[in-house]
Design brief:
This protein is mainly alpha-helical and 256 residues long. Helices cover 71% and strands 0% of the residues. Helix 4 packs across helix 8. The longest helix is centred in the last third of the chain and has 40 residues. It binds zinc ion (ZN).
Length: 256
């Protein structure tokens, strides 16, 4: 089924706008800042940023990554996040058409990206992403854009209980906090979007990726693991290809 290019283009524009909002969340939520006040301002000269200088991606390019008032550099993270979210929303529209499921996928992906950035930079997963995302996930399930409501509730419970158990066992084995409360709340949110099977797949993929990518790095220098980053990657895979992966794995097992 071909998707109307207008729908994809519209999703791209809406995604760019949400990317702009996600930037505000990423910068302010780790510091418990309000999302609405104060209005956007230059980090160097604190001049207010006018709406025409706040157009996703375009303004940053036109101003060559500098503040209009003081010429101070504006991080490339802003247009990059905007572009990523824009492409994410367009991709969801392309994959699933103008459906509630596509919207759920776009919102889920946007939240996962926010978690990835805040966890990687601050080892912190804001409640707005986890509890807020949980509410959205359940709402999508209720509206028919996600798994059945019972599945979503089971998924949220499974995510919470499983990660809580891992945290308790980790504490007992390693005598230190191995898993933060943010990861536990995050997996409750993920479960609402992907159901309990998706939760198992997410944790499996997250642990696999974390082991492959991060353990070689941490062996040399002891440091905290932003496990939410790997869970986010696993959750995205579970949402997009969960059924296919589970089917493939069952076939694979049958081969023995
Ligand atoms: Zn400035």
């Amino acid at each position: 089924m071909a998707v109307d290019p207008l729908v994809v283009g519209g999703a791209l524009l809406v995604g760019l706008a949400f990317g702009s909002f996600l930037n505000v969340c990423i910068v302010r939520l780790p510091h418990d800042g309000s999302l609405l006040r104060p209005p956007s301002s230059c980090p160097h000269c604190h001049a207010r940023i006018a709406w025409r200088d706040n157009i996703p991606v375009v303004s940053w390019l036109l101003l060559r990554g500098r503040c209009r008032h003081c010429g101070g550099p504006i991080s490339a993270q802003y247009p990059l996040i905007e572009l990523l979210v824009g492409v994410l929303w367009a991709g969801a529209a392309l994959a699933w058409g103008p459906t509630l499921h596509a919207l759920a996928g776009a919102v889920f992906g946007t939240i996962l990206l926010g978690i990835t950035v805040t966890d990687a930079r601050h080892l912190l997963i804001p409640d707005e992403f986890t509890w807020g995302g949980l509410v959205l996930g359940l709402a999508f399930a209720l509206g028919g854009g996600g798994p059945a409501l019972v599945q979503a509730l089971l998924g949220a419970a499974a995510g919470f209980v499983l990660l809580y158990a891992i945290a308790v066992i980790g504490q007992w084995v390693f005598k230190e906090e191995a898993m933060g409360g943010g990861d536990i709340k995050m997996m409750a949110m993920v479960g609402a979007f992907v159901g309990w099977r998706g939760v198992l797949l997410t944790v499996f993929l997250g642990a696999l990726l974390g082991t492959l990518i991060f353990v070689p790095l941490t062996l040399r220098k002891k440091r905290l693991v932003p496990f939410g980053v790997f869970l986010a990657l696993g959750a995205a895979a579970a949402f997009v290809a969960g059924d296919a992966i589970v089917t493939w794995y069952s076939e694979f097992l049958r081969g023995f």
